[in-house]
Description:
Elements lengths: L2 H10 L3 H10 L12 E7 L7 H20 L4 E7 L15 H5 L19 H16 L4 E4 H6 L4 H9 L1 H8 L5 H4 L5 E3 L13 E4 L4 E6 L2 E6 L5 E3 L1 H12 L6 E2 L3 H13 L9 E2 L2 E2 L16 H7 L2 H9 L6 E2 L5 H15 L4 H6 L1 H5 L13 H11 L5 H11 L9 H18 L11 H14 L7 H14 L5 H13 L7 H8 L1 H12 L2
Parallel strand pairs: 1-2, 2-3, 9-10, 11-12
Antiparallel strand pairs: 4-8, 5-6, 6-7
Helix pairs in contact: 2-3, 7-10, 8-11, 10-11, 13-14, 17-19, 18-23, 20-21, 20-24, 21-22, 21-23
Amino acid sequence: MTNTDLRSAAFESKAWPYEEARKLLKRYPDGAPAKGHVLFETGYGPSGLPHIGTFNEVLRTTMVRRAFETLSDIPTRLIAFSDDMDGLRKVPGNVPNGDMLARYIGKPLTKVPDPFGTHDSFAAHNNALLRDFLDRYGFDYEFVSSTDYYTSGKFDDALRGVLRNYQAVMDIMLPTLRAERQATYSPVLPISAKSGIVLQVPVEVVDAEAGIVRFEDEGETVEQSILSGGAKLQWKVDWAMRWVALGVDYEMAGKDLIDSVIQSGKITRALGGRPPEGFNYEMFLDEKGEKISKTKGNGLSIEEWLTYGPDESLAFYIYREPKKAKSLHLGLIPRAVDDYWQFRANYHGQEAKERLGNPVHHIHNGQVPQDALPVTFGLLLNLVGVMGGDATKDQVWGYLANYLPGATAADYPELDKLIGYALAYARDFVAPTLVRRKPEGVEVAALERLDTDLAALPADASAEDIQNIVYEIGKSGGFAELRDWFKALYETLLGSSQGPRMGSFIALYGVANTRKLIAEALAK
Length: 524
């Protein structure tokens, strides 16, 4: 596909990144803006450990950015903004040394010690986790710290703008608040020179150009500049100020922030700016259907997913159906891995229109590798599950020789990586649940017949030959439905209620080894 063909197809594609990119393209019908580029932003609150919901925004925003670059020659930038000057509101439930953290409630996250003892602050620790992963995945982004921008004076002009338009901002915010909150609300949060706490107190503008405000701190009336780190803004106002100060053109947000996007957009206009384009995605939920929270620690960490599945499987799961609420737990990984590889296998045989709608096109920015996976991740999990929790990668490759004669890790590096993930996943989640039951009724005779038929197979029998044998036994073996036979095979031989295509599994595990499983089942 030439660049011209790609651009033409992108203008027609219904894939959501291209739909978003076309919306952004209309923002500048006359070409590049005065700043010379289109700015994408993602935000992150480092009050807790990063989870996949955090990574989600950077990945999806990057997909829109790449789609925009397909449609336009206007330069782009992506900022990953950390709200690390926020005050610590409560102690997260998934970090050590909670008692120590409790003494810093209200102080900026960059002033809170790192409970892990590895960085200068709690914010620095969490920022580092996020950046490490973004770097590992190869994102093209610029990391921006709220603390750095406030304290260096980079936001000073925009802060003066907030003070100049203080009443207009109040008129936007107050109707959205409860009566008791209205009495104490201020868009500006001074940082106490006495305690270092981010104060939630009413303020009075004294001199907008000098940045001076007046407020009460521990019973004393104080006049203090909000410039160069003397204060931060309430987050909806902060969001709008940032959009104006940085010239943000695109930022997405979760469905739970729709009202915040509306209010921040109004404040942006009051400050003389233009709200960015964007869309609201649905939330990730945990296994109980509850919203994932950094402070509750009820979601997956980035590291957890990547212990059991490759980067691409995570990206695949995040890409699909962004406006549909989805569960996010470790049980999803095997399906995500196999679905990713299925879409990847289909890609190079598709027409341009279908390619641009294929998730792997957006995961790989159109540079989709052409190699295929000879066995599924699900099949690997079944194999490793039967081998037991102490199985090694070399042992798995030994079994793979039944299926791929002469194959080595050097021949199939992607498969070799998947074996490592399969070993970890099977050890931690599959092996503890496997219980092989005793065959009953017609299952006994069917297994005996399967053993006899397998014994009679020639050495070069294919997976399809074996599958035909299994299928015929199921049809003629007295089972009410064919699926009852397959379920019996899974439960008596593999210890699970679900399983792989048995012809493929037997070819992979080996006929002799499978006959041993049958013998063990019949001996129960």
